[in-house]
Design a protein that fits this description.
about 280 residues; alpha/beta; Rossmann fold; 8 helices; 7 strands
Length: about 280
């Protein structure tokens, strides 16, 4: 892979510091393109269904380049960073598939199991479907934040399963050490992010309980205030892990990175408040 030269980042004067940049990107995303994607569903063996959003440029040729894109925690196909990157790729004649992780976005109500930081089998299912829809197309795989960890885990845990059509990947600000990132949220001022994520996730659980009568809600000892508590009593056990620590240890992509065989870019920020640079 040829070396890449990235110019120094210079923020707007009003957005100095990682916290301001993180909050501005989340709450002031600017005008996003209208949604015109074709919605495609992918049934899974356990009865859940995944949803992907197919944006095909008019000038996309048969067997042209394709990108599969994964969002982060509490995100979906309409997350601003995902929409902006898809639009940029579409403008360069790249067909994009924005994936909704289980129960997110247009997939809300179509899954009983939660998504998690290690759900690489779900991404394999999406890749198989994309290969069927776009035969002979070279595929790039992009993951943002939590999605970046999933991408790296998929590439390195069983490299022999990576389809030959997948030729490159990128992980943007991936939490490669899940325990360090999640437990780090308990520190001031990161507690505000911790509380925000938990509120978003609990709201989705309440909405799912109203939508699906067959959904069995988790039994929390008390209403969780931290992400690690939510993971310990819901995400981890519903995904087949003993507890949050077992989940974090087995799904952190840091341990799988050395085995990755295809060209892969890991892009992170020195001042990201959520992903400590010390992980890298």
């Amino acid at each position: 892979m040829p070396p890449i030269t990235i110019p120094p980042f210079r923020s707007h004067w009003a957005l100095a510091g990682g916290h301001r940049q993180t909050l501005a990107g989340a709450f002031f995303p600017g005008r996003l393109p209208d949604e015109r994607a074709v919605i495609r569903q992918i049934p899974l063996p356990d009865g859940d269904t995944l949803v992907v959003h197919d944006d095909c440029p008019q000038d996309w040729p048969n067997a042209g380049p394709v990108a599969v894109m994964l969002h982060g925690l509490a995100g979906c196909h309409r997350s601003a960073y995902l929409v902006r990157h898809a639009a940029l790729l579409n403008a360069h004649s790249v067909r994009t598939f924005r994936m909704d992780l289980r129960g997110c976005g247009a997939g809300f109500g179509l899954a009983l199991k939660p998504y998690n930081a290690g759900c690489s089998d779900d991404v394999h299912a999406v890749l198989r479907a994309v290969i069927e829809w776009c035969p002979n197309s070279p595929i790039s795989l992009f993951g943002f934040s939590l999605g970046g960890n999933i991408v790296l885990k998929l590439l390195g845990e069983t490299p022999e399963r990576v389809p030959p059509e997948l030729v490159r990947a990128a992980a943007i600000n991936p939490p490669i050490d899940l325990a360090k990132c999640t437990y780090g949220l308990s520190r001031w001022p990161l507690r505000h992010y911790d509380a925000y994520f938990v509120r978003q996730l609990l709201q989705r659980l309440r909405e799912l309980q109203q939508r699906r009568t067959d959904f069995v809600p988790p039994s929390f000892p008390r209403s969780p205030r931290r992400l690690v508590e939510f993971d310990d009593h819901y995400t981890a056990p519903r995904s087949g892990y003993r507890n949050a620590d077992d989940y974090y240890q087995r799904c952190s992509s840091e341990q799988f990175i050395p085995a990755i065989r295809i060209p892969t870019l890991i892009l992170t920020s020195r001042n990201d408040p959520l992903i400590p640079i010390a992980s890298f």
